[in-house]
């Protein structure tokens, strides 16, 4: 619709988000194609300096990271943060900073990595519904050696939303020794679907790991 009506900003943003969806499914070829398409379209339209290009740069950066091209990936992620800070919104900017923090941590710059996650927390507090990025942030904190939910005010912490039937099914299987792949087989769904449900669980329970999810669910009488 954006293309057919000349709404180039909307088209650029849509292409960038499609690239992000492919990244989440680990469909690297499609993710790269959509990200390149978004950025090429933005450049042709004179929009390459707008915040709406940030998600496409993020998608391209994550693909490069997964393919072992760290230096090129960092350049894309830094560009994503630069553009994202111009108004991409708290959730995309948080996602960008999580990936940048991981690259800094991998390079041995732990202080900068932790500072970026704290900045991500501060940014996310301005978002009424952060979605799955909240769980990703908690997960990244634990992964990078921070106390999960550090600097996240208790009054704002997630944990009060109702679980869906599928999330409850996944939660029950998280109490077992089954891997996520084995859980997917038990529920006759893809591993990516299980991964999405697990992220939703983590966000709603306000936790960052499987063991914490089980403990919190027991405290709430969910299992």
Which key features would you list for this structure?
66% helix, 223 residues, mainly alpha
Describe the structure in your own words.
With 223 residues, this protein is mainly α. The chain is 66% helix and 0% strand. Helix 2 (28-44) packs antiparallel against helix 3 (54-66), helix 3 runs antiparallel to helix 4 and helix 3 (54-66) packs parallel to helix 5 (90-106). It is globular. The N and C termini lie far apart (45 Å).
Helicity level = 55-70%
| Amino-to-carboxy terminus distance | 45 Å
Strand content: under 5%
Order of helices and strands: HHHHHHHHHHH
Secondary-structure-based class equals mainly alpha
Task: Compile the SSE list and pairings.
Blueprint: H1 8-24, H2 28-44, H3 54-66, H4 70-84, H5 90-106, H6 110-124, H7 133-143, H8 165-174, H9 180-187, H10 191-205, H11 210-219
Helix pairs in contact: 1-2, 1-3, 2-3, 3-4, 3-5, 4-5, 5-6, 5-7, 6-7, 7-10, 8-10, 9-10
